[in-house]
Amino acid sequence: MENDTIYVTMFKMFTVRFGDIMINGDDMKSDRLLRLFAYLLYNHERIIPSSELVDMLWCFEEVDNPIGALKNLVYRLRVLLKK
User: E strand or H helix at 8, and its extent?
Assistant: First the structure.
């Protein structure tokens, strides 16, 4: 592909465009999935510890298995991006 630039809009409406493929916030079907994707895009230049992601996603909530929940969310994001 000649132009492999990814265009991201995070204000007003979340959108990610790569060539003729576009994903928007409505495609996510989950607020946490959207927040995870946006956080990873915003912090793409550094390694993010899983504990930081758990704190960001479930900051004031009790989760029985936070790492398991995070793994599930990452799996769902990967499936969405493969499409």
Answer: strand 6-9
